[in-house]
Amino acid sequence: EIVMTQSPATLSVSPGERATLSCRASQSVSSNLAWYQHKPGQAPRLLIYGASSRAPGISPRFSGSGSGTEFTLTISSLQSEDFAVYYCQQYNNWPPMYTFGQGTKLEI
Amino acid sequence: QVQLAQSGAEVKKPGASVKISCKASGYTFDSYGISWVRQAPGQGLEWMGWINTYNGNTNYAQKFQGRVAMTRDTLTSTAYMELRSLRSDDTAVYYCARDRLVVIMPLILDSWGQGTLVTVSS
Predict the structure, then answer these.
(1) Among A68, A57, A53, A64, which residue's Cα sits nearest to residue A86?
(2) pLDDT tens-digit map of B20-61
(3) Interface of A with B in 17-76 (CB under 8 A)
(4) Residue of B107, B105, B109 lying closest to B97 (CA atoms)
Protein backbone atom coordinates (compact mmCIF):
# COMPACT_ATOMS: atom_id res chain seq x y z
CA GLU A 1 0.00 0.00 0.00
CA ILE A 2 1.24 3.48 -0.84
CA VAL A 3 1.44 5.58 2.32
CA MET A 4 0.86 9.32 2.04
CA THR A 5 2.41 11.55 4.72
CA GLN A 6 1.38 15.19 5.09
CA SER A 7 3.21 17.91 6.96
CA PRO A 8 2.73 19.80 9.09
CA ALA A 9 -0.27 18.38 10.94
CA THR A 10 -1.39 21.90 11.80
CA LEU A 11 -0.37 25.15 10.14
CA SER A 12 -1.14 28.51 11.69
CA VAL A 13 -1.18 31.38 9.20
CA SER A 14 -2.61 34.90 9.17
CA PRO A 15 -5.12 36.11 6.56
CA GLY A 16 -3.34 37.58 3.56
CA GLU A 17 -0.27 35.38 4.02
CA ARG A 18 0.79 32.38 1.95
CA ALA A 19 0.43 28.77 3.14
CA THR A 20 2.57 25.89 1.91
CA LEU A 21 1.42 22.34 2.61
CA SER A 22 3.51 19.25 1.90
CA CYS A 23 2.67 15.69 0.96
CA ARG A 24 5.07 12.78 0.54
CA ALA A 25 4.38 9.38 -1.00
CA SER A 26 6.13 6.21 0.16
CA GLN A 27 6.81 5.35 -3.49
CA SER A 28 6.47 7.20 -6.76
CA VAL A 29 2.92 8.08 -7.81
CA SER A 30 4.06 10.03 -10.89
CA SER A 31 1.65 12.99 -11.15
CA ASN A 32 -1.37 11.02 -9.95
CA LEU A 33 -1.96 13.23 -6.93
CA ALA A 34 -5.01 15.21 -5.88
CA TRP A 35 -5.69 17.78 -3.14
CA TYR A 36 -9.00 18.28 -1.35
CA GLN A 37 -10.36 20.93 1.00
CA HIS A 38 -12.65 19.72 3.78
CA LYS A 39 -14.66 21.94 6.10
CA PRO A 40 -16.70 20.69 9.08
CA GLY A 41 -20.19 19.59 8.13
CA GLN A 42 -19.47 19.79 4.40
CA ALA A 43 -18.37 17.34 1.76
CA PRO A 44 -14.73 17.45 0.67
CA ARG A 45 -14.00 19.56 -2.41
CA LEU A 46 -11.53 18.70 -5.14
CA LEU A 47 -8.96 21.47 -5.58
CA ILE A 48 -6.11 20.01 -7.61
CA TYR A 49 -5.72 16.89 -9.76
CA GLY A 50 -2.80 15.61 -11.78
CA ALA A 51 -0.56 17.25 -9.12
CA SER A 52 -0.90 20.73 -10.64
CA SER A 53 -4.19 21.13 -12.53
CA ARG A 54 -6.88 23.17 -10.82
CA ALA A 55 -10.34 21.65 -10.77
CA PRO A 56 -13.10 23.66 -12.47
CA GLY A 57 -14.15 26.71 -10.48
CA ILE A 58 -11.15 26.67 -8.14
CA SER A 59 -9.49 30.00 -7.42
CA PRO A 60 -6.04 30.59 -8.97
CA ARG A 61 -4.84 31.30 -5.43
CA PHE A 62 -4.59 27.50 -5.12
CA SER A 63 -1.64 25.91 -6.90
CA GLY A 64 -0.09 22.46 -6.81
CA SER A 65 3.35 21.24 -7.73
CA GLY A 66 5.57 18.19 -7.57
CA SER A 67 5.87 14.72 -9.04
CA GLY A 68 7.13 11.33 -7.99
CA THR A 69 7.09 11.35 -4.19
CA GLU A 70 7.12 15.03 -3.17
CA PHE A 71 4.17 17.38 -3.61
CA THR A 72 3.18 20.85 -2.47
CA LEU A 73 -0.08 22.75 -2.24
CA THR A 74 0.35 26.51 -2.07
CA ILE A 75 -2.44 28.87 -1.12
CA SER A 76 -1.58 32.50 -1.74
CA SER A 77 -3.14 35.47 0.05
CA LEU A 78 -5.17 33.42 2.51
CA GLN A 79 -8.79 34.37 2.97
CA SER A 80 -11.08 33.46 5.87
CA GLU A 81 -12.88 30.79 3.83
CA ASP A 82 -9.59 28.95 3.20
CA PHE A 83 -9.21 27.79 6.79
CA ALA A 84 -10.03 24.09 6.66
CA VAL A 85 -8.39 20.67 6.59
CA TYR A 86 -6.52 19.75 3.41
CA TYR A 87 -5.90 16.21 2.23
CA CYS A 88 -3.66 14.83 -0.46
CA GLN A 89 -4.61 11.61 -2.22
CA GLN A 90 -2.71 9.34 -4.60
CA TYR A 91 -4.43 7.53 -7.43
CA ASN A 92 -1.56 5.84 -9.19
CA ASN A 93 -3.14 2.38 -9.55
CA TRP A 94 -5.76 0.93 -11.88
CA PRO A 95 -8.26 -0.38 -11.06
CA PRO A 96 -8.53 2.27 -8.37
CA MET A 97 -6.72 1.72 -5.07
CA TYR A 98 -6.44 5.12 -3.45
CA THR A 99 -4.89 6.37 -0.24
CA PHE A 100 -5.26 9.71 1.52
CA GLY A 101 -2.78 11.56 3.66
CA GLN A 102 -3.76 12.18 7.26
CA GLY A 103 -4.56 15.82 6.57
CA THR A 104 -3.19 19.25 7.40
CA LYS A 105 -5.36 21.58 9.44
CA LEU A 106 -4.93 25.17 8.30
CA GLU A 107 -5.90 27.50 11.11
CA ILE A 108 -5.87 31.20 11.75
CA GLN B 1 -25.58 20.44 -12.28
CA VAL B 2 -24.00 17.28 -10.95
CA GLN B 3 -25.62 16.11 -7.71
CA LEU B 4 -25.18 13.04 -5.56
CA ALA B 5 -27.97 12.62 -3.00
CA GLN B 6 -27.32 10.12 -0.22
CA SER B 7 -29.74 8.36 2.07
CA GLY B 8 -30.29 9.46 5.64
CA ALA B 9 -28.54 8.75 8.90
CA GLU B 10 -28.57 5.24 10.32
CA VAL B 11 -28.18 3.78 13.80
CA LYS B 12 -27.14 0.14 13.91
CA LYS B 13 -26.17 -2.41 16.53
CA PRO B 14 -22.83 -4.21 16.43
CA GLY B 15 -22.94 -7.15 14.06
CA ALA B 16 -25.65 -5.66 11.88
CA SER B 17 -25.37 -4.43 8.29
CA VAL B 18 -26.03 -1.05 6.74
CA LYS B 19 -26.80 -0.17 3.13
CA ILE B 20 -26.40 3.43 1.95
CA SER B 21 -27.69 4.76 -1.34
CA CYS B 22 -26.27 7.49 -3.56
CA LYS B 23 -28.57 8.81 -6.29
CA ALA B 24 -26.86 10.66 -9.12
CA SER B 25 -28.32 13.39 -11.31
CA GLY B 26 -27.06 15.98 -13.76
CA TYR B 27 -24.80 13.64 -15.72
CA THR B 28 -24.78 10.27 -17.46
CA PHE B 29 -24.55 7.86 -14.55
CA ASP B 30 -22.77 5.00 -16.28
CA SER B 31 -20.12 7.24 -17.85
CA TYR B 32 -18.43 7.73 -14.46
CA GLY B 33 -17.43 5.47 -11.60
CA ILE B 34 -18.39 5.96 -7.97
CA SER B 35 -16.01 5.75 -5.03
CA TRP B 36 -16.96 5.52 -1.37
CA VAL B 37 -14.98 7.36 1.31
CA ARG B 38 -15.57 7.53 5.04
CA GLN B 39 -14.50 9.75 7.92
CA ALA B 40 -14.64 8.51 11.49
CA PRO B 41 -14.99 11.08 14.29
CA GLY B 42 -11.77 13.04 14.67
CA GLN B 43 -10.09 11.06 11.89
CA GLY B 44 -9.11 11.69 8.30
CA LEU B 45 -10.60 10.52 5.02
CA GLU B 46 -10.45 6.80 4.25
CA TRP B 47 -11.11 5.38 0.77
CA MET B 48 -13.23 2.23 0.87
CA GLY B 49 -13.66 1.18 -2.73
CA TRP B 50 -14.87 1.89 -6.26
CA ILE B 51 -17.52 0.62 -8.60
CA ASN B 52 -17.56 0.75 -12.38
CA THR B 53 -21.16 1.81 -12.91
CA TYR B 54 -21.11 0.63 -16.53
CA ASN B 55 -20.33 -3.05 -15.91
CA GLY B 56 -20.56 -3.38 -12.12
CA ASN B 57 -16.90 -4.27 -11.57
CA THR B 58 -15.60 -3.31 -8.15
CA ASN B 59 -12.29 -2.80 -6.37
CA TYR B 60 -12.18 -2.61 -2.59
CA ALA B 61 -9.55 -1.43 -0.14
CA GLN B 62 -7.98 -4.47 1.47
CA LYS B 63 -9.20 -3.37 4.89
CA PHE B 64 -12.84 -3.84 3.81
CA GLN B 65 -12.48 -6.94 1.65
CA GLY B 66 -15.10 -9.52 2.59
CA ARG B 67 -17.19 -7.03 4.54
CA VAL B 68 -18.25 -4.49 1.92
CA ALA B 69 -20.32 -4.74 -1.23
CA MET B 70 -20.80 -1.96 -3.76
CA THR B 71 -23.57 -2.27 -6.31
CA ARG B 72 -25.47 -0.03 -8.68
CA ASP B 73 -28.83 0.29 -10.43
CA THR B 74 -28.40 2.00 -13.77
CA LEU B 75 -32.16 2.35 -14.25
CA THR B 76 -32.40 4.67 -11.25
CA SER B 77 -28.83 6.06 -11.46
CA THR B 78 -28.19 4.92 -7.92
CA ALA B 79 -25.11 3.42 -6.32
CA TYR B 80 -25.19 1.43 -3.09
CA MET B 81 -22.65 0.56 -0.44
CA GLU B 82 -23.37 -2.21 2.05
CA LEU B 83 -21.11 -2.78 5.03
CA ARG B 84 -21.61 -5.94 7.08
CA SER B 85 -20.61 -7.11 10.55
CA LEU B 86 -20.59 -3.56 11.86
CA ARG B 87 -18.35 -2.63 14.77
CA SER B 88 -18.24 0.48 16.92
CA ASP B 89 -15.23 1.74 14.96
CA ASP B 90 -17.36 1.77 11.80
CA THR B 91 -19.14 4.80 13.23
CA ALA B 92 -18.40 7.44 10.61
CA VAL B 93 -19.76 9.73 7.95
CA TYR B 94 -19.84 7.85 4.65
CA TYR B 95 -19.54 9.73 1.36
CA CYS B 96 -20.03 8.72 -2.24
CA ALA B 97 -18.08 10.62 -4.87
CA ARG B 98 -18.07 10.67 -8.66
CA ASP B 99 -14.92 9.03 -9.95
CA ARG B 100 -13.25 7.98 -13.16
CA LEU B 101 -14.73 5.16 -15.16
CA VAL B 102 -11.58 4.49 -17.15
CA VAL B 103 -7.98 5.35 -16.38
CA ILE B 104 -7.63 8.06 -19.03
CA MET B 105 -10.29 10.29 -17.49
CA PRO B 106 -8.52 13.20 -15.79
CA LEU B 107 -10.80 14.27 -12.97
CA ILE B 108 -11.09 12.27 -9.80
CA LEU B 109 -13.61 12.51 -6.96
CA ASP B 110 -14.87 15.77 -8.43
CA SER B 111 -18.38 15.74 -6.96
CA TRP B 112 -19.43 14.39 -3.58
CA GLY B 113 -22.61 13.41 -1.83
CA GLN B 114 -23.63 15.21 1.35
CA GLY B 115 -22.54 12.33 3.55
CA THR B 116 -24.44 9.77 5.62
CA LEU B 117 -23.77 9.37 9.32
CA VAL B 118 -23.73 5.77 10.46
CA THR B 119 -23.66 5.22 14.21
CA VAL B 120 -22.86 1.76 15.53
CA SER B 121 -23.85 1.37 19.16
CA SER B 122 -25.36 -1.25 21.39
Answers:
(1) A64
(2) 999 999 999 999 999 999 999 999 999 999 999 999 999 999
(3) 34, 36, 38, 43-46, 49-50, 53, 55-56
(4) B109
